[in-house]
Amino acid sequence: MDLKTQELVNKGEMLPLMEEFYTIQGEGAHTGTAAYFIRIGGCDVGCHWCDVKESWNAALHPPTHADIIVEHAKKYAETVVITGGEPLMWSLDYITTQLKHNNIKTHIETSGAYEFSGIWDWFCLSPKKTKLPLDRAYIEADELKMIIHNKNDFKFAEQQAEKVGEKCQLFLQPEWSKKEKMTPLIIDYVMENPRWRISLQTHKYLNIP
Asked: Global pTM?
């Protein structure tokens, strides 16, 4: 990467874009709604069950001008979801400012493990044991989405729920490869602890991106 490109990446005016697509939100509080997804490369959180491990190495995804990404998004959607990888590895102030200038709602899905940036209408926090969120992420969270891979994850979910604000919606989501085993346990848990809601990866059931 040349110095000029690196400078633009550092400012968030270019981002390592892995993919962008218009689809139906499959998870969490906005399940079933249309959104334009921007997936940014780069992640060192290291979830062994991650279903987009090809996003981890940012060097595989060429820096793309944020203005170009915004131009694409505004052709399709009223809402943009920025995800990864781990999107907060990069400064998101510039791209979210441009999106807001175009009257586009901005959502993020993040582990919260990196410094906060961006202007958000919806902040989905999905903490991981391998690299815990920073304090600001708990404050900003509108939605706490906990991935349930084994029984111990229920305890971790409760620990994380204690750190978010009262406004934050709480979701338990079965890890896809364990959905047959964990979904019945999640159903029972939510019935016993009704402040939680169930999130499913409905886009996978619908066979859409």
From this structure: 0.95
